[in-house]
Specification:
The complex is a heterodimer. Chain A contains six helices and 13 strands. In chain A, strand 5 and strand 6 form a beta hairpin. By secondary structure, chain A is an alpha/beta fold. Chain A starts with a strand and ends with a helix. The longest helix of chain A has 11 residues. The model of chain B has no long low-confidence stretch (mean pLDDT about 90). In chain B, about 50% of the residues are buried. Chain B starts with a strand and ends in a 12-residue tail after the last helix. In chain B, helix 1 packs parallel to helix 2 and helix 8 packs across helix 10. In chain B, strands 1-4-5-6-7-10-11-12 form an eight-stranded parallel β-barrel, surrounded by seven helices. Chain B is globular. Chain B is an alpha/beta fold. Chain B is built from ten helices and twelve strands. The chains are: A alpha/beta, B alpha/beta.
Chain lengths: ~180, ~250
């Protein structure tokens, strides 16, 4: 069994997440198998693609229920970007999508600045720059960090979600993932 | 708004980084992975790889380069050149690139912008525009179209582009500064970020471009002295532009 399961939902770039895990000395596997998600010591819900197709894929494979059970039994899950957004109750993306509902909150479209919000930005209170690429953001009572006034990290129970891409955030991102594991 | 970005651009031919003027006298600069790591260590915020050969036969070579880069690079990178179809974009992104840049293929088939954005998200599509006096050019800037640059930028954004990479063919390679007027005109016409390209000869040039644009593409100014990237960043910041504060090498 591998150390870390990176949940596959049929879109996007999981290669960089796995490369970062490898550099941290962790073995990883990309899968949507409910059994693997249930058993892994650590699960990462990564972050590229659309909310609608991601949720459809998670439902079709049964990964959604495995993630809920994992959360209910207090097993660690880290959500990255869309992975954070999927954990909430609802997303306004794609005309409205029901999320996993692990944490309270909803996902709404960014309104200020250039969209997509692309580039490095300081995250408070951690006082560290991370890389962002998103058009939607989380509104949740479980918020634990902000960047330029928006929520960029949520934490409750065994779920920790971040809006930025640690796997693309250089040494700061690598350190963040190392601390999560 | 996020911090302004400094983006080195590497030209790739047959799996190697090359340097040359207008595709002639190509000089081998080294292995893409090594150079990418070098620029990343020096504080590049992102990288752009441009496949300047971009032949169908070369596609596999480029895909292999992308995968090798993705396995070591911990900053985002964009790949351009040779992306003509959704399948091309998928091949590049699934090999580990964050975004693809499309240029003449988007002009020939604007639906391609929407298709890639729909599949991978807007942030994955950069539309590159080569501008000459307000008119879009193709074929490395040698051929004028009848398309207005600002109008095309606006259309690309409406069709789902996540960013515009605007190159001034007049300024490109001249090292006398960016075309600030056109950069500002394009940026005012869209609500997506804009990368200024063409003309960087000094930190002051880059700093003034970053007042107008969200990011600046640099090539020869850093390729001649890759170790100078960190210094260039410091100079730009001293001129009042906020770039990412660099973490000490962990």
């Amino acid at each position: 069994m591998s150390d870390v399961v990176v949940v596959d939902y049929g879109a996007g770039n999981t290669r960089s997440v796995c490369a970062t895990l490898t550099s941290l000395g962790r073995r990883s596997v990309v899968t949507s198998s409910p059994a693997d998600i249930a058993d892994a010591p650590f699960v990462i819900l990564p972050g590229v693609g659309s909310a609608k197709s991601a949720m459809a894929h998670l439902r079709a494979t049964g990964a959604d229920e495995a993630l809920r059970q994992r959360f209910a039994s207090d097993q660690p899950i880290v959500g990255i970007c869309l992975g954070l957004q999927l954990a909430l109750e609802h997303s306004d993306e794609d005309g409205g999508v029901k999320g996993l509902g692990l944490l309270p909150g909803r996902v709404v479209r960014l309104e200020e600045g250039r969209i997509p919000r692309l580039g490095w930005a300081i995250v408070e209170p951690w006082n560290e720059a991370f890389y962002f690429a998103h058009s939607y953001y989380a509104q949740s009572p479980a918020a634990v960090a902000t960047s330029e006034g928006i929520t960029v990290a949520v934490r409750q129970g065994s779920f920790f979600g971040v809006q930025f891409h640690p796997e693309k955030s250089g040494p700061a991102g690598r350190e963040f993932l190392a601390q999560c594991l | 708004m996020p911090l302004k970005r400094l983006i080195p651009c590497l030209d790739v031919a047959n799996g190697r980084v090359v340097k040359g003027v207008s595709f002639v006298n190509l000089r081998d600069m080294g292995d893409p992975v090594e150079l990418a790591q070098h620029y990343s260590d020096g504080g590049a915020d992102e990288l752009v790889f441009l496949d300047i050969t971009a032949t169908p036969e070369g596609a596999d070579t480029m895909t292999a380069v992308v995968a090798r880069v993705a396995d070591v690079l911990a900053i985002p990178f964009t790949v351009g050149g040779g992306v003509r179809t959704l399948a091309d974009a998928q091949r590049i992104i699934e090999s580990g690139a964050d975004r693809v840049s499309i240029n003449s293929a988007a002009l020939a088939n604007p639906d391609l912008i929407t298709e890639i954005a729909h599949r991978f998200g807007s942030q994955a599509v950069v539309v590159a525009i080569d501008d000459g006096d307000g008119i879009v050019h193709t074929h490395g800037g040698r051929q004028a179209t009848t398309t207005n640059t600002v109008a095309w930028a606006r259309e690309a954004a409406e069709r789902g582009a996540g960013e515009i990479l605007l190159t001034s063919i007049r300024q490109d390679g001249q090292r006398t500064g960016f075309d600030l007027v056109m950069t500002e005109a394009v940026r005012n016409a869209v609500t997506i970020p804009v990368i200024a390209s063409g003309g960087a000869g000094s930190a002051a040039h880059v700093a003034e471009a970053l007042v107008v644009a969200d990011a600046a593409l640099v090539a020869s100014i850093v390729h001649e002295n890759p170790a100078g990237l960190a210094g260039l960043r410091r100079e730009i910041m001293a001129l009042g532009v906020a770039l990412r504060p660099l973490k000490e090498n962990a």
